[in-house]
Amino acid sequence: VGFPEIGTEQELLLATRGDTLEVRGVIRFDTMTTLVTSANAAAQPITEVDSAYLLIVLDTAHARIPAQIRFELYDVDDSVETDTLSAPVNARFSPDRKIGGITVARAFLPETLAVPVSDSAVLAKINSRARMRIGLRIDGSGPVWIRVGSTLGSVGAVLMYRGSPDTTVSKISVSPLSNYPAGTLEAGIRAGLTNYSVVAKNALPQFLNTMNVGGNPGRRAYLRFNIPSHIVDSSTIVRATLVLTQRPIPYGDARDTMTIQAQVALAGPQVTDLRRAANIISAPGLDVTDSLLISPRDSGQKSVNMFNLLRAWRTQDALLYPPPRAIVLRASPENVLPFEASFFNSSSPPSLRPSMRISYIPTITYGVP
User: Fold this and answer.
1) What is the DSSP string of 192-242?
2) Tens digit of pLDDT for each residue in 193-235?
3) Distance CA 163, CA 150 (A)
4) Cross-strand pairs, 265
5) DSSP for 11-36?
6) What value does the mean pLDDT of the chain take?
7) What is the pTM of this model?
């Protein structure tokens, strides 16, 4: 559980689905513009802020939006650096910390939305030379979820405000930036904390003897196979299929669908930490297996073509690089959809367990007799 790493999503998920799921977002503006320059004067400290708003890009095509949707903004900064822990961050989404918001009818929801921010809240951060970290939460007249652009996807949010009552002075645009943690070795962590999702609630059930894929935070399943060497090395494989039995998750809409990819595990036997092994996988676009398009509410057997994968395993040198003979099931995209699929695992009754069905014949040799 916990895939992908924090802040590495191409988009941020915002969701409120009753008692089952709530996902929020955090955007850091650790460096604020404190000076304003007019046309006929030198740079002056900002003493007044006007028309502040947070500009966000919405993916309205892949969303569930009720008749009314409400975006709320909160000041989630704190003197203690605990932003990688969900509980302290979620505690700051309190009414006394609310600094802005807007309610929009579904028919008038644009793809680029300006959410008003309290001018006084922005000015207070500027005057105290403090950082501004904004928490995003959505709600609506019914269950709602929508994806917001992130800096990793090159369409991150922007904080806009006017630093002077003079309307001829250009608006100031501040891009997301994280200054924590400091140090050159933590650059990757800093980038991930620029904007990220935080799960406030996930009450989806984790059934006994099952493996779940997808959801928030994202889950992956690691499947390792013990295939007789004479099948892989000394026969001609005609067909190979991974058979999974899905267990329905009775939440959400029957129209909800998600894609599950079976990617090749590349970590060798020296990597004994399965979570780390589940993160060392083939790159998207280089897979030799099929993907599944399913509804989380569905049930029954699902099949994944593994023919090309077994052929790839055959080319691996078992002496120089012992092949892991494993795959990883993951949602695509990951951690940006409020869907989770459940499959029976190897502890289930034999008829429900995952299985590999292989059709093969003795090796066929080609050439002149």
Assistant:
1) HTSEEEEEEEE-----TTEEEEETTTBB-EEEE----HHHHHSEEEEEEEE
2) 899 999 999 988 778 899 999 999 899 999 999 888 788 778 8
3) 26
4) 281
5) EEEEEEETTTEEEEEEEEE-S---EE
6) 87
7) 0.86
Q: How many CA atoms lie within 13 A of 144 on its CB side?
A: 21
Strand partners, 369: none
pLDDT digits (tens, 9 = 90+) for 286-323: 666 778 999 999 999 999 998 888 877 776 655 556 66
| CB 285 within 8 Å of CB 265 | no
Q: Which of 125, 113, 38, 41 is nearest to 75 (CA)?
A: 125
In the chain, alpha helices (H):
86-91, 119-127, 187-192, 229-233, 274-277, 307-315
In terms of Cα–Cα distance, which of 322, 347, 303, 331 is closest to 221?
331
Helix, strand, coil % in the chain, rounded to nearest 5 = 15, 40, 45
- Closest-CA residue to 333 (of 157, 197, 176, 200): 197
What whole-number distance in Å separates Cα of residue 208 and Cα of residue 352? Answer: 13
pLDDT for position 317:
57
**Angle CA(145)–CA(218)–CA(191) in degrees, nearest 5?**
90
Contact 140, 16 (CB under 8 A): yes
Q: Which residues pair with 102 in a beta bridge?
A: 71
Is there a cis peptide before residue 45, judged by omega within 30 degrees of 0?
Answer: no
> From the CA atom positions of the chain, what is the Rg in Å?
25
> Which is it for the CA torsion 85, 90, 96, 101, positive or negative?
positive
Highest mean pLDDT among 79-93, 181-195, 269-283: 269-283
Q: Give the pair of three-digit tokens for residue 351.
A: 């008829």
